[in-house]
Design goal:
222 residues; alpha+beta; Butyryl-Coa Dehydrogenase, subunit A, domain 1; Butyryl-CoA Dehydrogenase, subunit A, domain 2; 2 domains; three-stranded antiparallel sheet; 7 helices; 40% helix
């Protein structure tokens, strides 16, 4: 049974590799030449993300039970490795979305899961706001706070660095919600923009932002 799944995963990766084209032939988003030129400009090759979306890579980020294609990690791992062999930045872009989505798939409510799934399947990206410039990955030293008010939640703090922050619609943020309690909160950044709430760079807040019902606590971490 395991061999059968692994074989299907390898076939999927081989299909994706064919779609990416011959890396030795310039002029395609995933050729070695175009990848290096774009990397020197600190950007993705034109058309790279669109090609992966048209193939359906983003469907591998969403579990089958809520409309996606994710059945096991073999397929996602081998597909990600196939992309990374051509362009690491493109692989990290989708990997960052999956990192942000994973807590929602594990602990989110049905409504949160469906909201995120619909967005990702529509081609949106997500980011995971975890570390802070002053504390790195020392989570117990997290200064970003999450507090409730009448109509929702308020997130106060600054997260850095945040992969995908410049393109993400969704953000999963780690914040202090009590003296010895922490929470993960799902923020729909598109919802914030629609309500004209003042926001700096996505989830890099320097002062309090009231996020209302667009921020939903996913879980508490004691």
């Amino acid at each position: 049974m395991y061999r059968s799944k692994l074989s299907a995963a390898h076939l999927l990766a081989a299909e994706l590799d064919t779609v990416l084209g011959d890396p030795e032939v310039p002029g395609s988003p995933f050729s070695f030449r175009d990848t290096v030129l774009a990397d020197n400009r600190l950007e993705l090759p034109p058309g790279a993300r669109q090609l992966l979306v048209e193939w359906g890579f983003h469907h591998l980020l969403v579990p089958q039970r809520i409309g996606g294609r994710l059945r096991d990690f073999d397929e996602l791992f081998l597909a990600s490795r196939t992309v990374a062999q051509r362009n690491m930045a493109a692989a990290v872009m989708f990997g960052s979305s999956f990192l942000a989505a994973l807590p929602i798939w594990l602990w989110g409510t049905t409504a949160q899961q469906q909201r995120l799934a619909d967005g990702l399947l529509d081609g949106a990206s997500a980011c995971f706001a975890l570390s802070e410039e002053e504390h790195g990955s020392d989570l117990r030293a997290t200064e970003t706070t999450l507090t409730s008010f009448d109509s929702g939640w308020s997130v106060t703090g600054r997260k850095w660095p945040v992969g995908n922050a410049g393109r993400a619609r969704f953000c999963t943020a780690f914040a202090r919600s009590g003296k010895a309690e922490f929470s993960l909160v799902l923020i729909d950044l598109a919802g914030l923009a629609a309500r004209a709430v003042e926001v700096d760079a996505p989830i890099r807040h320097r002062r309090r932002k009231q996020t209302g019902d667009h921020a939903q606590r996913v879980c508490r971490v004691a």
